[in-house]
Amino acid sequence: MKAEWIGAVAGGMLALCAASAQAQQTVNMPIVIELSGAGAVSGTNFRDGAVIAIDEINAKGGILGRRISAPQSDTQSNPGVSRAQVQKAIDGNPYVILGPVFSGSVKVNMVLAQQAEVPQFTGAEAADITQMGNDYIFRTSFGQQMSMPKIANYIRDRLKAKSVAILWVNNDFGKGGRDTFSKEMAARNIKVIADVSTESGQVDFAADVVKIKGANADAIFVYTNEEESARFLREARKQGVKAPLIGETTLLGQKVIELAGEAANGAKGHVGLTVDAPIPAVQAFRDKFQKRFNYLPDHNGIKGYTAVYAVKHATEKIGSFDRKLLAKTMKGLTIKPEQEPGILMEATWDAKGDIDRISFLAEVVDGKQKIVTILPKLGK
Amino acid sequence: MRMPRNARAIAAAVAVALLVAAPFGLKPYGIYLLSLWAVMTIAAIGLNLTLGYAGQISLAQAAFVGIGAYTAALLTTQGWPLWSAFLLATGLCLVVGWLLGYPALRVQHHYLAFVTLSFATLVFLMLRNEEWLTKGVYGISGIPRPTLLGWSTKAPLDFYFFCLGVLALVSAAAWWLIRSPWGRAFTALRENPIRADSLGVDTRRYTLMAFAIGSALGGIAGVMYAPLVQFIEPTAFALNLSLNLLLMVMVGGSGYFLGPFLGAAVSVLLPEWLRFSEGLYLILYAMFVMILMAFCPSGLLGLAERLRKPSR
What we know:
The structure holds 2 protein chains of 2 kinds. By secondary structure, chain A is an alpha/beta fold. Chain A contains 13 helices and 17 strands. In chain A, the strands form 5 sheets. In chain A, strands 9-8-10-11-12-16-17 form a 7-stranded mixed β-sheet, sandwiched between helices. A 3-stranded parallel β-sheet of chain A has the order 5-6-7, with helices on both faces. The longest helix of chain A is centred in the N-terminal third of the chain and has 20 residues, at 40-59. The model of chain A is unreliable at 14-24 (pLDDT under 50). Chain B is 74% helix and 3% strand. The mean pLDDT of chain B is 90.
């Protein structure tokens, strides 16, 4: 029994040491991101992209003469853990917070960043994130409310489909996409004849493919996270699905092609961001990334990279490290590659923190993503 | 071998003093972790009653935390006070826990684990799919922190003391329960149900009660969890949390009163502590748990007891 009490006291001591303060002389831009768990692929891409940008900027003397320090913390793809990590980031008096990518995590912690008045640059795409009246949240890629209309138009105009089947992952990302997509389909009089929900981390898609195939729709819209997309593509190929497989970046991304191999061929759809974009700056980024990390980045790599440069540009525009002013400056800001090469493509942020950029219609041909059409910015 | 009564009282006073002093000098991140520790400890105390004392394995504890959290979130976002959520969630979990105890009358050990696992999955699916009630995968945000008799617990420090207060009440109740005839009946149930039966212990009723009370404590932890994180979604209460709670009980020392306190500290604080090792921290954590379980299946307190024995 005595030992039990000694143990309890030791536990108390452990608790005392739980947090540590960190002094800072540089500009603090913590990266709070998915480095383990279901979001590890996306999070690692985002982190590596950001790290490249940070090293480049630091090599040139930093932002306004201050070097960027970017402590990284892993959210384990778990919203509860992400809240703790964002709190830790905020305790370190950050200038901005980079990440996370998973929408559920962002929804937990964006309120904290808002209360602390710290601008947060997220890779999340769920539609509702920028619709909660939070002045401190900024996207680095399209939200679903921007990308779904583009896909819907593609299905109507290019594929001339009259019916679609939807296969989606039942988390807030997938559900949000599926809900937005269904609305866009209804608005275009295209019937949704199969609606198949799948699990995050699901491995076996055989039963789902049987269902989808049986529906015999003109097109199949696939909206799952990268690893699941690859597994689905393999199964669809195995069962000889003939209808076109349509998706977003999470179906056509480099990571998916790498995992699905030959089965990815023929998948098509809309991508907001891609390292295969026919833009020299983007391709140069891709090569730089691949050289350093020895793998091909996906859209999350671009998100991390451009987020850092967006912060740099806006800060230099303000001329000081003022978080509130940064959040204000970002609203309605357009950054062109001529002004800031690191932004790669012209980008505009609106009053809600949504981003507008050109985007692409793409197809996977011979194990490579091929850009078919460049879609202009929505604001043009 | 027990410590003398006054030595135990001193040790308890030191532990309490440490817990009260702990958040001062900590930043909100540290205070948040301590609050999370307190909440998880409550859930683990519940599981320790069911598993550690009564010997009934349960993988459903996360489901009860979920029921509690959703009760609190739904009621408080509608303007109801948190104590109403405490009442409702405790009542609800008592009843559901009691019902879940029935299979335990028929099956034991890993079979029981499977039964409770199915129940946990059922609750998870309900939380996710009954969107009209739970908002499904979108989760519930903006959960307010309570104001008690004019004391607002909005700030991290205040909320920590609120958590600590609830933990103190729960611990006192558990302490009393374990030493009451009920607690002794639980232990008898674990050690030898047939013998307990022959001595006139109503094993049927006590099995159900062990489940009901353990589950109710899970519900109370859930009611605290919702205003702590201020956002809940179903995946937080999936199997992962059940396994984590099971780990807390085992690592701390199943069947020891202080086991859940230590186990929750290991589970909540140790991974954070190991973060200095960056990419390796989860590996180090897993290795620690594996080594501990391999060489000391009775947990940290079991280990402490074993280390003490040779000196006697």
